[in-house]
Design goal:
With 259 residues, the protein is α/β, with parallel strands linked by helices. It contains eight helices and seven strands, in the order βαβαβαβαβαβαααβ. It has helices spanning 18-29, 41-55, 69-78, 102-130, 151-171, 189-202, 206-216, 225-235, and strands spanning 9-12, 33-38, 59-63, 84-87, 133-138, 176-183, 247-250. It has a seven-stranded parallel sheet with strand order 3-2-1-4-5-6-7, sandwiched between helices. 42% of the residues are buried.
């Protein structure tokens, strides 16, 4: 299927690795020029080279901290009028809520709620004026099924979802959609860090913790970031103009609910 977005411009945040990288690659394969961001220049440039080699599209890198005002300004200077925005940020660390201070909570909310909102605020009105826009927020399956050790993520990301539920109904008549992609367990560095925490708590090895996660998932496996990236590209397609404010859960069937 031709997704109808060739020649569009996209900003993909936290795109040097993991799910952000997969989204940038999938968009590039559809002919989208991408601006990718991350804090560490080395891995970011490596990813950009891989995307250019695989797709031939224009890739611009911005090494910056997207959670800061200066970082966001640098990204928007590189791509002032994106057609597609993929919000993404590393999730807060796992832990026990008794150990979290106000500083921990503010940092989590700033990265996983306020930063995406600031990026949307900077880009959504021009999208509406041009009559096309796609915003994807990469959040977490914990928004639907909270994970105890990820309390910081549960709270901050749920706040973002509440905001999006209202805004997305205001932009859709201008062909600007805003949707959330909720990953479950995928083969990423973030997952490996979580497995390390689980292994320490349970007194098992990281490999054993990974095997437990694999077995308890109805699919019998962990997710491949490439399939997540392709889902992102489809939600950004011309065909998705009638879908907005939705939470797309990708977790191999782990969520046990009906709705």
């Amino acid at each position: 299927m031709d997704l109808g977005i060739a020649g569009r411009k996209a900003i993909v945040c936290a795109a040097s690795k993991g799910l952000g990288r997969a989204c940038a690659m999938s968009l590039a394969r559809e002919g989208v020029d991408v601006v990718i961001t991350a804090r560490t220049p080395g891995p970011l440039e490596e990813t950009a080279d891989e995307i250019r080699s695989a797709t031939g599209v224009r890739v611009i890198t911005v090494a910056s901290d997207i959670t800061t005002e200066a970082g966001r300004a640098a990204v928007l200077a590189a791509c002032p009028e994106p057609d597609i925005l993929v919000n993404n940020a590393g999730g807060p660390p796992p832990g026990d809520f008794r150990e979290w201070t106000r500083e921990h909570w503010i940092k989590a909310v700033d990265a996983n709620m306020l930063t995406p909102i600031e990026m949307i605020k900077a880009t959504v009105d021009p999208m509406m004026k041009r009559g096309f826009g796609r915003v994807i927020n990469i959040t977490s399956s914990s928004v639907k099924a909270p994970i105890e050790v990820l309390g910081l993520s549960n709270g901050a990301r749920s706040g973002l979802h509440g905001f999006i539920a209202g805004l997305s109904r205001k932009t859709v008549k201008f062909n600007v959609t805003i949707n959330n992609l909720l990953p479950g367990p995928f083969e990423t560095e973030r997952m490996r860090n979580n497995l390390f925490h689980i292994a320490n708590v349970k007194g098992i090895t990281t490999d054993q913790a990974r095997e437990l996660r694999r077995k308890e998932n109805p699919s019998g496996r962990l997710g491949d970031p490439a399939e997540f990236g392709d889902a992102c590209a489809f939600l950004c397609s011309a065909q998705m103009g009638y879908v907005t404010g939705q939470n797309f859960l990708m977790d191999g069937g782990a969520y046990p609910g009906t709705y």
